[in-house]
Design brief:
Blueprint (H helix, E strand, L loop, with lengths): L2 H9 L10 H4 L3 H16 L2 E9 L5 E9 L3 E6 L5 E6 L2 E6 L4 E6 L6 H4 L10 E8 L2 E7 L8 E7 L4 E8 L5 E11 L24
Length: 211
């Protein structure tokens, strides 16, 4: 796996999947209010597009175009010379590397994308919110697997006034972060359905990616 694909795998690493959150994390009323603001914003973000910049643990960056259509659908089209294309069709997240001629698929529910692509956003159930941090221009919410079946964390970052998703950072069990920063996020409407379809281009006799 190349460094770029390894970084992508980290960004799509297993996500929080179970257990109660707010009371266990001991959030203050002010922190719970920020979580509630984030949930309300995400549930209202039905379609959007943005430029993204992904930075791996070694500081190497790649960029591309992101399209979102909730519930469940997203497309990360990486800029050349990267050969990566990542598409969530609502059930599977498929990763195609045209340069390496590889294709892999993962259930959406075990990736961080499920945290904000779900039909109903629940940051108070299914994950454990471990930290809510105020910043000069917004706030960040860090969550992890409540049952501790998956190592690592995901931190969603939001701007303030108005609230908007600015990006996210996935940190693996070895404390290696992969950051995705959104640039110029805009609400959209009528995004083409074909954006969220990605079929395995390899001949049928070639071994399929893991699911």
């Amino acid at each position: 796996m190349s460094l770029t694909r390894r970084s992508l795998a980290l960004a799509l690493a297993a996500a929080p999947v179970a257990a109660p959150a707010w009371a266990q994390a001991g959030l203050t009323p002010q922190e719970q209010a920020l979580v509630a603001r984030a949930v309300a914003y995400l549930e209202g973000l039905t379609e959007a597009q943005a430029k993204f910049v992904q930075t791996d643990a070694r500081g190497r960056s790649t960029s591309g175009q992101l399209y979102l259509k909730r519930p469940g659908k997203a497309r990360f089209a990486y800029d050349p010379p990267s050969g990566l294309l990542v598409v969530s069709d609502g059930g599977l997240v498929s990763v195609q590397d045209k340069r390496l001629k590889t294709f892999e698929s993962y259930p959406l529910g075990v990736t961080p994308l499920s945290l904000f692509l779900a039909r109903t956003i629940r940051l108070d159930k299914g994950v454990q919110v471990t930290r809510v941090a105020r910043m000069s221009d917004g706030f960040a919410i860090t969550a992890r697997d409540g049952r501790k079946e998956t190592a690592g964390t995901i931190t969603l970052t939001f701007t303030d006034n108005p609230v908007a998703l600015a990006g996210w950072t996935v940190t693996d069990a070895q404390s290696r972060p992969t950051r995705v920063q959104l640039v110029g996020l805009q609400r959209a409407s009528g995004l083409d359905k074909s954006l969220f379809v990605l079929k395995d281009p390899r001949p049928k006799n070639v071994g399929r990616g893991k699911v």
